[in-house]
Amino acid sequence: MNYVSTRNTDHSVSLSDALQEGLAPDGGLYVPSAFPSIPPEAFEGCTTAEAIAERMLEPFFDGDVLAPEVPGIVSDMYGFSVPLKDVGAQTRVLELFHGPTAAFKDVGARFLASSLSRLNRSATEPLTILVATSGDTGAAVAAAFWKKPNVEVIVLYPKGRVSDRQEKQLTGWGANVQTIAVRGVFDDCQRLVKAAFQNDTWQNRKRLSSANSINIGRLLPQMTYYAVASLRVWRETGNEANFIVPSGNLGNALACVYARQSGLPIGEVVLATNANRPVTAFFESGEWEPMETVETLATAMDVGNPSNMERLRHLYPSVDALRSSITAARVTDEAIRQRIETGEDDWGEVWCPHTATAVDVREKLLTSSDDHPWVIVATAHPAKFDDIVEPLVGREVPVPEALAEVMERSRPAPEIPPSLDALADQVLDAQAPAA
Ligand SMILES: *Cc1c(COP(=O)(O)O)cnc(C)c1O
């Protein structure tokens, strides 16, 4: 299996190269050159999540140097459960928040950490992952790469612009993970990352790479939990499962679509977005137009120009093909608040603000006569967003053990002004041997 650029399908690389490069040289995103056919029967005898994940990933690793390491990568990646909870009314909840930072991004980050660590086994210098984060991605990457050999991570976050709990997840790692608080906004952090990549001194001193959400290594592993969930529903009911995916940058939703494209028993795929309009506007008008990001309660989905739209449009070049394969719905903050408020009464669940968008879509579908099984994708644990959720449910939401452990490690991070010199002082000079 090779991977091609969305902007030039003649540009084809191996999986390992796609993982290490991140972005294609022409600015396009890497996508599989073709989709394998792995129908439900191909999973016979695969009962555990790990066995299903291995079977799902094998064809995507075919011919790559990492192919023999799929079982090891899968075992590094899971190590926590992905329960599918029946909450009644033909509705199941796929809980993707049992990893160390209590959100689905743990899966992709752990896959990438395991793969990159293995690929750099014989390197003389570690690979340095430079990440700018507005909160959740940096935490998942830090947790995933922590203490992995042959790789190191530098996380930059905007001081005072992440929540207390997010800051606790970002800081205090030590070992091969350095976290730096930048006196600025997220865009300053991102600018510093880009500047370091283009700077000769940095290029001479470090082997730089990125772990952002456009890396195909964040998408492929996410297909595996859709395989696990859809096969469970298929084996129990003989029906295809329909999925509702809370979406921002569309990486999670695309993984669901890729799984269906590969033959998994998945029916409808519905993208639940927050008040940000670009995705639903595109489905309505057929014209793609990025928009200014608006702030909502589901902050991790506040995206005005989702980069994975390029992959989606590559898969469905015509708008009609796209419309017949996927639908999208927009959910207001008011609806998010209401679903969180009534979650325990209606479903016996406390929802995070992101998951609440999918819940709203599901509740609106309940009035129809459709009796197919639906799966709500729960992208984060509600305790990550205590400031929003607790006032609405009127009580404290206990922090899951894995997340509590991560937050306990917290220590104040060094602070720098938003300049590349200051970042170099902190990172390069601190490690330079005495002259
Ligand atoms: C990142 C994130 C999303 C959005 O996922 P995309 O892959 O960017 O669409 C939704 N919910 C939570 C909790 C997230 O962290």
Characterise the protein shown here.
The longest helix is centred in the middle third of the chain and has 22 residues, at 216-237. Strand 4 (84-88) and strand 5 (91-95) form a beta hairpin. Strands 4-5-13-10-11-12 form a 6-stranded mixed sheet, with helices on both faces. It has a 5-stranded parallel sheet with strand order 9-6-7-8-14. A 3-stranded antiparallel sheet has the order 2-1-3. It has a domain at 71-104 and 216-393: Rossmann fold. Helix 2 (49-61) packs across helix 9 and helix 14 packs across helix 15 (353-365). The protein has 18 helices and 14 strands. It is an alpha/beta fold. The termini are far apart. The model has no long low-confidence stretch (mean pLDDT 94). The structure holds pyridoxal-5'-phosphate. Pyridoxal-5'-phosphate binds at residues 103, 105, 136, 246-253, 300-301, 354, 379-380.
Average pLDDT: 94
Strand percentage: 15-25%
| Major β-sheet profile | 6 strands, mixed
Based on the coordinates given, report the CATH architecture of one domain: 3-Layer(aba) Sandwich
Please give the CATH class of one domain. Answer: Alpha Beta
State the strand order across the main sheet: 4-5-13-10-11-12
Question: What does the overall shape look like?
Answer: globular
